[in-house]
Amino acid sequence: MNEVTWQGGIEHWTRKGGDIRLFLWQKPAAKDVPFQGTILFVHGSSMASQPTFDLSVPGRPDSSVMDWFAARGFDTWCMDNEGYGRSDKQRPINFDIGNGADDLAAGTEYIMDKTGARQMHLYGISSGALKAALFAQRHPDRVARLALDAFVWTGEGSPTLEERRKKLPEFSARNRRPIDRAFVHSIFNRDHPGTADEATINAFANAILSLDDSVPTGTYVDMCSRLPLVDPARITVPTMIMRGEYDGIASFDDLIRFFTLLPNADKQFTVMSGISHASFQQKNYLSVYHILHAFLTLPPQVYKG
């Protein structure tokens, strides 16, 4: 595995179900700006949290989304779901999306106890968006605002999932699947090559492979055979759908139907120009930061009708 170090953060550990250890990573809010709240970033199917949200790339300013939001007053956190990164991996299960939502319950409880936060913002990407949405459905009282990036609802019309289903028997037959450098590159080549630069892709691959050489199959099985996993009518918190222009994980029609059924009028649907799947690792990553920051810093509503 590659040697990658993460700096400037605080390591935390909590437990789920009494004996399952979960790793959390915190970049605290800057002291010289107004405090903006707490945000928990939720990773996807094929990598742990730090490579996704605290990636350092030489010559790429503000490459770490955690650093960028911390500098603007957010207490930023990410967590390795069970089966990924530094969190426990020993249970003989495939660590599906429901289990990931259970991790978020344990993680948010720890963050609230540690910091005194009453609510927090959640950002999830890909299967992490499904985990975040399911968690918000179960625990709306803990969520201030919910951002779902690279989200999929029913899977109808998804070219990525159509291709992935060809390997569903293989994924269903085992709890983990191997990953390597070629696989990481395939994430950026499958939809629209050229949306990410090689230096960032290579740094991302180094960071992912420094922590894992295999990842759970559960989220792939869920996304290929068990959708829908969340009910938009039961997601009552303010929600934003973030859809990359070239992302093949979900069709526009699938996401628009989901968006229409969200009951809270405080909701947004944003198309991110020039973005494919892994938005924070794209050439247009700063526009993604801006979109997310604008949603999380909306002023309180004065009139609600």
UniProtKB/TrEMBL annotation:
**What residue stretches are annotated with the Serine aminopeptidase S33 domain?**
65-280
Q: Does the keyword Ribosomal protein apply?
A: no
Does the keyword Transcription regulation belong to this entry?
Answer: no
Any one Pfam family here would be: Hydrolase_4
Q: Which UniProt keywords apply?
A: Hydrolase
Q: Which GO terms describe its cellular component?
A: membrane
Q: Name one GO molecular function term.
A: hydrolase activity
**Transmembrane stretches, by residue range?**
none
Q: Which PANTHER family match?
A: AB HYDROLASE SUPERFAMILY PROTEIN YCLE (PTHR43798:SF31), MONOACYLGLYCEROL LIPASE (PTHR43798)
- The identity of this protein, by name, is Lysophospholipase, alpha-beta hydrolase superfamily
Originating species: Noviherbaspirillum humi
